[in-house]
Write a structure and sequence with these properties.
60s Ribosomal Protein L30, Chain: A, Phosphoribosyl-aminoimidazole Synthetase, Chain A, domain 2, 2 domains, four-stranded mixed β-sheet, 10 strands, 23% strand, binds magnesium ion
């Protein structure tokens, strides 16, 4: 199958050729087994889900993908659909929640290619199913030509949740995976760290957690809050090969890319100092495929991210001392 763009100039291939009812039917069919049967699934005024979870917390989040903002017109439906679900799963992972239910809202322009949309919905269904999450219902809205966006509201459950700003002095700072250069492909091909997040929430030694979506320099201050500083050993940051590739192209350092690029969708979390070494061993035994790196520690402060080497704040620009 050749490349298929989201927008088409041929009316016969566009969503405009089908009625509202038919369009919804096609979307629901494409979502596949992620859609449970009515009344827990589509077909009623509401999705009605029996309350079976015994977990202490119900965890909710919502995220969108917008054509021209989170993906461009050359992105396949399957990559855009996967990205929408994985972005939400990454937030559930950061909270240590098990994905369960979701609602999908679609805003579709008349010149959206129907085959692209099917591809999109299939990927949403596939990615949700793989994570054990249902798509229980949603909404379809017609918008202006040239526009497409999709919003997914997700819910998960957890016995113990992870959150931000709950770290303590001395806590060690860990990150999963690698950082930087996400635009070269990772931003569409990542898999959210759901299993790792669930496991982290079960460990008493984990004190705080977030996922890296906006880049370390934005997400780390969010993790620690205003009472602590994070001391980061920049030499230990796990750089993605793509961070080096981008550095070669634009002259900014690979470290700068790792700190600022965003869309890493890795977990960044704190572990009690006394448990740090046994924790790392346990983690690697549980997740031998997932890279884990200790990158620094937490101390009393005012919400700054500082370099362990020269104690200077790592700011959003002016990275000259990394060159
Ligand atoms: Mg997040």
């Amino acid at each position: 199958m050749g490349f298929m763009a989201i927008l088409t100039t041929q009316k016969s291939k566009s969503v405009a050729q089908v009625s509202e009812e038919k369009l919804i039917e096609i979307i629901v069919r494409s979502l596949g087994r992620a859609c449970p049967p009515f009344p827990a699934g589509p077909g009623g005024d509401c999705a009605i889900i029996p309350q079976t979870e015994k977990a202490k917390f119900r965890v909710s989040t919502i995220d969108s993908v917008i054509l021209g903002r989170h993906f461009d017109s050359s992105c396949s439906g399957s990559l855009a659909g996967k990205k929408l679900v994985e972005r939400n799963l990454s937030d559930l992972a950061a909270a240590g929640a098990k994905p369960k239910d979701a609602l999908l809202s679609l805003f579709i322009g008349p010149n959206v290619n129907l085959a692209w949309l099917k591809d999109f919905a299939q990927a949403v269904g596939r990615t949700a199913s793989r994570a054990g999450m249902n798509i229980n219902g949603g909404d379809v809205c017609r918008v202006q030509a040239g526009q497409f966006s999709a919003t997914l509201f997700v819910q998960g459950f957890s016995q113990r949740i992870l959150t931000r700003t709950t770290c303590q002095a001395g806590d060690r700072l860990f990150v999963t995976g690698e950082l930087g250069g996400s635009l070269l492909g990772h931003h569409c091909h990542f898999r959210a760290r759901v299993a790792e997040g669930l496991w982290l929430a079960q460990q008493k030694s984990t004190t705080a957690c977030t996922d890296l979506s906006d880049g370390m320099l934005k997400d780390l201050p969010g993790l620690i809050g205003k009472k602590w500083d994070a001391m980061v050993d920049t030499e230990k940051l796990p750089l993605r090969p793509a961070a080096h590739q981008m550095a070669k192209k634009d002259g900014r350092s690979a470290l700068e890319h790792a700190l600022q690029d965003g869309e890493d969708y890795e977990l960044l979390f704190c572990v009690k100092a006394k448990d740090a070494s046994s924790f790392a061993q346990k983690f690697q035994k549980q997740f031998p495929q997932t890279r884990l790196t200790e990158i620094g520690f937490i101390k009393k402060g005012k919400g700054l991210v500082r370099s362990l080497k020269d104690k200077q704040p790592l700011l959003g620009k002016g990275f000259s001392h990394f060159a």
